[in-house]
Amino acid sequence: MAEYETFTHDVLVIGAGGAGLRAAIEASAAGVSVGLVCKSLLGKAHTVMAEGGIAAALANVDDRDNWKVHFADTMRGGQYVNNWRMAELHAKEAPDRVRELEAWGAMFDRTADGRILQRNFGGHRYPRLAHVGDRTGLEMIRTLQDHGIHRGVDVHMECTIVRLLRDGDRVVGAFGYERERGRFRLFRAGAVVLATGGIGRAFKITSNSWEYTGDGHTLAYDAGAELMDMEFVQFHPTGMVWPPSVRGILVTEGVRGEGGVLRNREGRRFMFDDIPEPYRAQTADNEEEGWRYTQGDKTARRPPELLTRDHVSRCIVRELKAGRGSEHGGVYLDISWITERLPNAAEHIKKKLPSMYHQFKQLADIDITKEPMEVGPTTHYIMGGVRVNGDTQMSTVPGLFAAGECAAGINGANRLGGNSLSDLLVFGKRAGEHAATFARANKPGAIDASQVDEAARQAVEPFGRGPEGEGPYQVQYALQAMMQDLVGIVRNEDEMQRALAGLTELGARARRVGVGGHREYNPGWHAALDLHNLMTVATAVTRSALERRESRGGHFREDYPDKSAAFGSVNVVVRKEPDGGMAVSRAAIPEMPQELKRIIEEMK
Amino acid sequence: MSTTATFRIWRGDGKGGAFKDYSTAVSEGMVVLDAVHQIQAELANDLAVRWNCKAGKCGSCSAEVNGHPRLMCMTRLNELDLSEPVTVEPMRSFPPLRDLVTDVSWNFRAKLAIAPFKPRPPDAADGTWRMAQADVERVQEFRKCIECFLCQDVCHVLREHQMFDQFIGPRLLVYTAAVEMHPLDTANRVPQLKAEHGVGFCNITKCCTKVCPESITITDNAIIPLKERVIDQLYDPVAKLFRLIRRRDSAG
Questions:
Q1: What ipTM was estimated for this complex?
Q2: Cβ–Cβ < 8 Å for B82, B76
Q3: Does A245 touch chain B (CB under 8 A)?
Q4: What is the DSSP-derived secondary structure letter of residue B31?
Q5: Architecture of domain B3-102 in CATH?
Q6: Of A214, A261, A512, B98, which one has the fewest beta carbons inside 10 Å?
């Protein structure tokens, strides 16, 4: 029998970034006991990396903005395969969630009359992002953290969940280990909220840290929940490319929002060369107009650098393939040119983009106020995730909820910048609220000892094989390189079939991985256990991408380069079969209410 | 072009440990954390290290590199003399857990004791407030803190004198300053600052300011103004006289 320590909470939240913290705060406010599990220390989750801002139609800067415009922008950006109910709730509730942060101590940049300032961002019609320079994520996570610690939430730091426990169909707890001593922990819970973020570590070039191995996706999948839209991975157009050790680190879209432009090695602003039809009417067709837009001229249309991320990434790939890339295989992102337009431009840049200035200065010896940056696409975000009810955030498994990046729906085929932080707040709150309701309404379930023993046995297997087995990092690197090459920004049938074959091979290698040492804070062991998750999400991404024989948003297939109406009305769903295989199916998107359809028509 | 460098990394736990040398290939642009990761992947799978963002934003990978408190992810190898072994050891003010990982949980517990933000009633009917950018900026400096705890590591009150139960350290004084100077805040943390949080123990050597990776002017902008508040409220001779008289009155 496995040895473990047992904790009991009404609601267990797994993941302590923006969504997890917001869920924990809400559940606690509902009067139930809450446990919050974080893989790292509290306050270090990926939310801290978010730079640009929180999208919310506060209309502080442009009074033409309202939830309808935000809703239409989100649906357009997601190419209309979003969960429209989530897009609606998100647009309606985001302003209150932002104001709430201010009541909890967040200090956003201000307008001249002292209200929350909002900035431009890709795909948003009006300046909409509440922000703090380019460190909005830090402000948000610290605000939630400092508020949350006074709300009676039990925080389990540096703890990783490896299995959800079920009683019949329902999720009734979770099993995992704490890093410090490597001891097992069992959590009994009336309801579980997954808020584990993304899967970026399944790719080689990524802005994501070691934590983002698809844990929540895999926990849900293994517990019988459906995953949806897994083919939609967002490759952010601007990651650092040089020096090699920083490749993939994010360069905020805020650089372009503040007037930064993309150029190829010939100095051409190539984004003007390809403006997609749905955006033509609202995009500037000359440099002058684009500049005026970034400086707040309401009569100007936005520059093409602020088109959606999927499109900008593909334009950069096109430049690279045509041999027009920069010295180190990227393109140039230049904010220093605004010295021609603004007095004190250097100071302005340092004030608006302080951490970008700092990051390039320290890591690449580049002064962004004087010279252009080199940037290229980096794996940033997954639109797909656990399939949830739009109102309650409950998955297809009773008692299991999901919010934030690990849930699917709000973003459709492509996420707009800034919609992530607002998503965390809006649906973190909803998940916490409904998880608390569920936990109250249902009696605690029974813990099945055999599930616990099985999870514990599997968790220590790598030690049984010892250091003679293959190293976990080598398998992880091989998986990342393969996914980058074969299931990256531009995909086709042949390469993805090869990826599936490769995944089978890697699966066999993963099962032979061994680690040395003991269980106390042993990263090799942790990496070995995360492999199962990486394999699961890599397979889900590949299988879903094979199923969607069209190009839409973050999913681009050179063998099916156009959108297809048939695929425009379905989501691709994967589910674990009783025999352990992965079932792939298409689920029809429910009919949108007339009122919402009308809004989309009006905003076209 | 790639060369080899030696990293002298502390391996051990709460019971003790020793430096161990690892040689690994280094290339242009690498930071100390890259080298540690490479060693972890190739030579020592179980080498314990904390990290997350690898871009100086999360404050996880704090350590002492050649004796200096640094974020490993922001310490470029080309700043270091690679002809000698580069020493990498855990922050020494905190109890070692394993290898480069220390027990920093005290910081989280100590923060809980600081009175939380308490805003005044909203300024506008819609429940919002008005604040000027200039007022916000003063506090935004403190809110840049990434909680790497390097300032706590270098502070001699904590490092040499281990006064963890009497002094909250620079990081938490910065946190106190952020809430205390928040334009909307109404709580008073001054008596607490003096009595339980020991602001008086700081003797302004400014070591914390020097190591802050976010360049927060910890001593001048956060700690000294807090000390001034303590003096104004608790040591002002006129106020003291008033208190004395009031006490006499009530006693009489």
A1: 0.94
A2: no
A3: yes
A4: B
A5: Roll (3.10)
A6: A512
